[in-house]
Amino acid sequence: MRGLVPGLASPYPLADMLPSLLREDPFAQSICGGLDEVLAPIISTLDALPAYLDPATVPDDMLGWLAGWMGLALDDHQTAELQRRWVKIGVDLLQRRGTVVGIESAVAALFGTAPEIIESGGASFSVEAGSELPGSAEPDLLVRLQVDDPATFDLRRLDALIAMIKPAHVPHRVEVFGP
Fold first, then answer.
1. DSSP assignment, residue 117?
2. Is there a domain that residue 15 lies in?
3. pLDDT tens, 126-152?
4. Same structural domain for residues 47 and 109?
5. Are 42 and 35 in contact (CB under 8 A)?
6. Do the domain assignments include residue 93?
7. Where are the beta strands (DSSP E) in the chain?
8. Residues 112, 170: one domain?
9. What is the 8-class DSSP label of residue 9?
10. pTM of the model
11. Which residue range forms the structural domain that includes residue 146?
């Protein structure tokens, strides 16, 4: 949590803005000094706001806050570097959320391997009325991921990721397999 920073000087001391009559008053100086101590971290934060909105420079403890703006959930078991990469690609993921490409990108970003995705949907074009529709009437999504050791892989993390980025009405299954 950010708060008072001992010894942080205000870049805009309030005493300098007082009328000349009050600049000599010790009581007014002490009140302004106290307010400067409280306002200095706020001014510093506002001056550095672009750094708080950039995944490359945001403090580690604020990555979750930044991810929350995009509707992403961070895994506390990930390194800060992996969390930064996840937040950085978050904007791209949001644009492709719910698509096969979006699911592939998210799984590859989080687990380092592109998955195999089998889904029941489809799209086609026909100039004849009453043409057969592609895909299946029942929605289904299967995400298969090749990992080094399926026995030690945390399948819950993959399942939670797919649940977060797939269309809400589509049931899904996840599978992992070895090399």
1. E
2. no
3. 888 888 877 777 888 999 999 999 999
4. no
5. no
6. no
7. 116-119, 141-146, 172-177
8. yes
9. P
10. 0.61
11. 99-179
